[in-house]
Queue: 2 jobs
Job 1
Amino acid sequence: MSIGVQLQTVMAMLTCGALMGMGFDTYHVFKGRSRMPGWIVFIFDLLFWVGSMALVFLILVKVNDGLIRFPIFFAVIIGAWMYFLLGSKKYIHFLNRMIKFSQWLYRTTVLVIDTIVVRPILFFYRVILMLLVFLYSVLLAIIGFVWKVTRFVTSPFARWGQHLGKKMFGKTTGFWKNWKNWFHSKKKQD
């Protein structure tokens, strides 16, 4: 293996170590913000380390055809150590600010969508509902008024019809009883 490939491999492994450190900090920041049970945390820890090893191996395959030697592990450890020594606190600070910005952006977007879309739709829905209720009550009032006018106009005829019925069939007996009696009397006559 040439010196250039070895230097390229060492630089790639230093970068892998730094990326693993960044991934570790990112994972711990998000893990600290969530309330997960211990068994889920264990599974995520396992997935993180398996994913990190897979990333290192894939980069090794790309850089030097997957040749694994002791200096490679040493370069990964030095890259992670340099990251934790020089950039971990700045990266965590940056990550926390990005998370706060993302939360602010999410809340602002939800507020804007609520103000521009949801509230006007709810307003128009309520206006249409109130208009329909108003029209329904007006229609009921008109029907009630027409019914009262019709009853008032037809009331003399109704009283006359009731009076005529009482004269024809008697005051105490009903129509069907008189009809039945009349029908039986006709039968007897035949």
Note: DSSP finds five helices and no strands in the chain.
Job 2
Amino acid sequence: MEIITDGSTLLLSGDFDVRSTMEVRNAIYDHLEGHDSDVVVDLTDVTTIDMTALKVLAVATRQASRSGQHLMLRGCGPAVRRMLHLSRLIRVVEVERARASA
């Protein structure tokens, strides 16, 4: 898992699964503590994701909300969206709407 910080955005790439959840969790919480603005987690380059990873994102979303911040997911492909719906975590996390192509 590679994590790149670009302003208020965390760009994730690689496998986001049980092996990388602690690393991503720490990066998100460090980012939330270091910024007063909303935080975006970009999943565009994530190749695989599991339920443990989605739960980390859901808990981070709630933690951000408690501290008056906002966490949004960007670049969620069909597989990620499907898992969010199946797990009903879509009710907890905010997913950026895909931009309409011209």
Note: The first helix runs from residue 21 to 34.
